[in-house]
Amino acid sequence: MQKIKWRVLFFIVIMAGLWFPAFGEDDSSASLEKIVVSKSRNIFLEQYSLDSADFESLPYSSPIEALNTLPMDLQSRSPHSAIQADYSLRGSSFQDVLILLNGERINDPQTAHFNSDIPFTSADISRLQILPSASSSTFGPDAIGGAVNFVVKKPVEKKCILELSGGQYGTYSQLFSVSDKIRDLGVRLSVENGQSDGFSEDTDYKKFTTSVVSSLGLPLGSFDLSAGFQKKDFGAYDFYTPGMGYPSKEWTRTYLLDAGFNLGKEGFIIKPNFIWRRHYDKFMLDKTGARSNFVANHRNDTYTPNIYFQKDFLKLGKAGLGLEYGDERITSTTLGRHTREHKSIFIDDALTLTPQVYSVLSFRWDDYAGFNNTYTGSASLRYEFVPLNFLHCAVSRNMRVPSFTELYYNDPTTIGNSSLSAEKSLNYEIGYEIKKEKFSFGPTLFFRKEDDFIDWVWNDSLQKYQTQNISGADVLGIEMQLGWEINKIMILNTNYTYINKFTDNSGYLLKYGPNYARHLWNTEFKFKLPFGVQSIGFTYKQKPGRPGWFLLNARFNYNFNKNMSLFLSGTNLLNVGYQEIEGIPQPGRWIDSGFKLEW
Fold first, then answer.
1. Residue 298's beta-bridge partner residues?
2. 3-state class percentages of the chain: helix first, strand second, coil last, to nearest 5
3. Measured between alpha carbons, how far is 555 from 222 in angstroms, rounded to an integer?
4. Both ends of the chain: CA-CA distance in Å?
5. Which among 138, 137, 208 is positioned nearest to 176, based on CA atoms?
């Protein structure tokens, strides 16, 4: 271990010696020039993304709900994914998706059930990105299936937004956002409030979010600071005990601070960054007290300072070096008090080998307290064999350490396991892409081999679910996406994913293992009419051992002028009964409407 540390230190010194002379060169004429650097770590493929125009022009309740139009298995426990939703990519468990904010890790260390507690409003998000396993490996642990990146919008203009909406089951929400930019400083303040009586007993909720986003222009880039607060109070009927009939109640609070510099000069980038996230959770298993008096209180904190350097070399390409430190702490009535540190070093390189061949390599070393050192990374290649036709292939190795809940939790129905090992996976993919101005098409075949993956299994001796490492699983699947601007009015976006997962469950009854989507098909038709954007779309989803379901959704806008619009949203218009997570019913037909002012 000592030799490894010295080798790492020697590598850092050598790389710094190559980079810093270029950064330190004096050029008085250039020092006054403002350079806005938006580049980040080298990634191979950003296969799917949504810009703010995609979800601002249509009445989605939140950017998270808009992810339903992509090949993301969003496993919601609440209407419109407003309160809690689990993420699954390429057949992964809900724990195995990495959540990023501006490319920085924000996963909840207690449980991934809280990964959708992101204290920013739809007025704050400029882009959503889904990164497959090969692209996400450089960002660190938890990206077994891939990563989702929420990109915060910089305040660049003077603007006010007021949005009011209401719908069935006593549902309403209000959003107000104001931004301004004075010289080099831009600031935005957003406040959002919403609540619902719920579509059935114990599905009510209240939600409040406020955020401040600022960006200060500097001679060599910018300093960006974002802060947010969110609180949720909600009925949690069978959220964690599917099919057992517990009328539960939950309260959460989330604080988040993201601050960092984005600086660059003459092909050199430096990005120091710091994220602090605090999450409170109070959970009552039976709010009536008839079957249980169990109440749990949790508080966790995550501190993550990091720094990333990137230099554009003539022959080596864009080479990057990153250092990261993480500190995760939890104080809980059911999990106890625990702290674990996390140290990482990672490198990446993007290189154009020929005008037709492009490659990206990454390597990462992670040292989690209580777990063995882990080495992960990826290698990928993209070949343009004819103009606008691309062939790509990639391989990556990923890992995930157990959450605090998986290690230490204990309640009347579940118990953790402090002896768990880290999950590991090998990912392979090969794909084909056609990208033209008005047409895109691309199938991707992928295979993932998982070792020691973690699930909750039924233990007859304890009569409880307990976490265990499962020896292995093989995941085979194919993704296909099609984008077609049929004419000036109509746009078609469709994607389909098929997944088959072979699990060596050793006779265990798995709680989450079979909850992936074997078939997932999303299609959306957008109509760009003179008075606004309209949308009609459907989703078909089928999970192993269960009948599939078909959802029809529609969203309409009417723009009176550039400042005011009315909107109408209908989800599950066919009133289909379905369960994203078996044992937790989802709402039937739901209609919302409202108006939006911008000035």
1. 281, 332
2. 10, 60, 30
3. 37
4. 60
5. 208
3-state DSSP of 232-296: EEEECCCCCCCCCCCCCEEEEEEEEEEEEEEEEECCEEEEEEEEEEEEEEEEECCCCCCCCCCEE
Q: Report phi then psi at 3, rounded to 5.
A: -65, -40
Domains located in the chain, CATH noted: 2-594 (2.40.170.20)
**Predicted local distance difference test score (pLDDT) of residue 9:** 42
Indicate the pLDDT class of residue 3, thresholds 50, 70 and 90: very low
The tokens of 29 are what? 């004429």
DSSP string, 321-380: EEEEEEEEEEEETTTEEEEEEEEEEEEEEEEEEETTEEEEEEEEEEEETTS--EEEEEEE
Cα 394 to the center of its chain, rounded Å: 21
Q: Can you list the pairs that 524-531 forms with residues at least 24 positions away whose Cβ atoms lie under 8 Å?
A: 524/69, 524/492, 524/493, 524/494, 525/490, 525/491, 525/492, 526/490, 526/491, 526/492, 526/493, 527/489, 527/490, 527/491, 528/488, 528/489, 528/490, 528/491, 529/489, 531/557, 531/558, 531/559
Phi/psi region, residue 320 (left: phi>0; alpha: psi -120 to 50; beta: rest), is beta
Question: pTM for the full model?
Answer: 0.90
Q: Encoding tokens for residue 235?
A: 């009925």
Q: Are 92 and 104 contacting, i.e. CB atoms less than 8 angstroms apart?
A: no
CA-to-CA separations, 39 to 43, 112, 263, in angstroms, rounded: 11, 28, 10
CA-closest candidate to residue 324, choices 335, 308, 336: 308
Side by side, the strands of the sheet bearing 48-51 are: 48-51, 125-132, 146-152, 97-101, 104-105
Task: For 462-487, give one letter per residue: b (16+ CB within 10 A) or e.
Answer: eebbbbbbbeebebbbebbbbbebee
Is pLDDT at 479 greater than 80 in this prediction? yes
Distance CA 52, CA 529 (A): 19
Tens digits of residue pLDDT in 532-553 = 999 999 999 999 989 999 999 9
**Tokens linked to 50:** 């949504």
The reported pLDDT for the residue numbered 414 is 85
Whether 334 and 409 have beta carbons less than 8 Å apart is answered as yes
Task: Please report which confidence band the pLDDT of residue 302 belongs to, taking 50, 70 and 90 as the band edges.
Answer: very high
Q: For residues 394 and 47, give the distance between their C-alpha atoms in angstroms, rounded to a whole number.
A: 13
- 162: how many CB neighbours lie within 10 A of its CB? 15
∠ CA 527-530-533, rounded to 5°:
35
How many Cβ atoms from other residues are within 10 Å of residue 577's Cβ? 10
